[in-house]
Design brief:
With 283 residues, the chain is of the alpha/beta class. The protein has a single domain (3-280), classed as 3-Layer(aba) Sandwich (Rossmann fold). 39% of the residues lie in helices and 19% in strands. It has helices at residues 3-15, 46-50, 72-76, 80-86, 112-127, 144-155, 181-185, 192-198, 205-209, 225-238, 253-273, and strands spanning 23-31, 36-44, 55-56, 59-63, 89-93, 137-141, 162-166, 213-219, 243-247, 279-280. It has an 8-stranded mixed beta sheet with strand order 1-2-5-4-6-7-8-9, sandwiched between helices. One of its GO terms (molecular function) is hydrolase activity. Keywords: Hydrolase. InterPro entries: AB_hydrolase_fold (IPR029058), Esterase-like (IPR000801), Mycobacterial_A85_antigen (IPR050583). This is Alpha/beta hydrolase.
């Protein structure tokens, strides 16, 4: 789909829906890095269409987990109403089934960090009234997407001012048995240095250096809770400010649909603290 048609689709989806609630639509966002386009779900708050058209809005990018796609969050959790409550734009891009949201040196067809962290962000900023600055952007995700959100934020501190992880697979070294992970990370024995360098715990200090507002949570019955606790402990040892929570629950949509409410609230607070909650489009 070319950009002109994609933009027309945006207008059709978002301005033919009822104006009394948030508006949800699907757009096609091209990737130069991967030479194809991918769908994404976008949720606009109610007042985006019917409010002050000079207002710009902060954006929260929400990533799906392994085996999922761009429809997961809106299909399984009442995420749309959070756009209305906190006056934010929500963007849920497609990250592939087992991409881990990295630019794989082993699979040139899997360059999802560049896609999500640069190409999607630029496309959204060019077409919507966003606050196009790091203090007006946050990124989070579940499971594989939790790892991806933290990895992308660490590698692009000039793009994202806040980041989160929900039930995140924050240490890929503990996930060697995940189907397809070696396709993007390489053989864990032969390419151990690459696996080690991508573990979030190995880069924990950078969150403070880059002044990233950080929130992490995981269910107490989740298989990833041990690696999340290790990351939390490392952040504490380094004195890195962050929000950490464990709640009852496992690796399930019941947990994730509850956790996303707290994370969006955290990001909204971050936006307000940095003075970028909403901003006039006029200069």
């Amino acid at each position: 789909m070319n950009q002109a048609r994609a933009f027309w689709l945006v207008l059709t989806l978002f301005f033919t829906t009822p104006v009394w609630a948030f508006q949800t639509g699907v757009v096609s966002i091209p990737s130069v890095a991967m030479r194809r386009a991918f769908d994404a779900t976008i949720v606009l708050p109610d007042d985006y269409a019917r409010g002050d058209h000079t207002q710009r809005y902060p954006v929260i990018y929400v990533l799906h987990g392994s085996g999922g796609d761009y429809t997961d969050w809106t299909s399984n959790a009442p995420i749309g109403r959070l756009a209305d409550r906190y006056h934010v734009i929500l963007v849920m891009p497609d990250g592939g089934h087992e991409s881990w949201y990295i630019d794989s040196p082993f699979d040139p067809r899997s360059q999802y960090e560049t896609y999500v962290g640069t190409e999607v962000v630029n496309w959204i900023d060019a077409r919507f009234r966003t606050i196009a600055a790091r203090q007006g952007r946050a990124i989070t995700g579940l499971s594989m997407g939790g790892f991806g959100a933290l990895r992308i934020a660490l590698d692009r501190p000039g793009t994202f001012g806040a980041a989160g992880s929900i039930s995140g697979a924050v240490d890929p070294r503990k996930c060697e048995d995940e189907p397809g992970i070696d396709r993007v990370f390489g053989d864990p024995a032969e390419h151990a240095a690459f696996w080690n360098s991508n573990a979030i715990v190995a880069n924990a200090r950078e969150f403070e250096r880059d002044h990233i507002d950080l929130t992490i949570d995981c269910g107490v019955s989740d298989g990833f809770v041990t690696s999340n606790r290790a990351l939390h402990q490392r952040l504490v040892e380094l004195g890195v400010p962050h929000d950490y929570a464990e709640r009852p629950g496992g690796h399930t949509w019941s947990y994730w649909s509850n956790a996303i409410r707290y994370q969006v609230m955290f990001f909204a607070t971050s936006f307000r603290h940095n003075g970028w909650h909403r901003q006039s489009a006029q200069v």
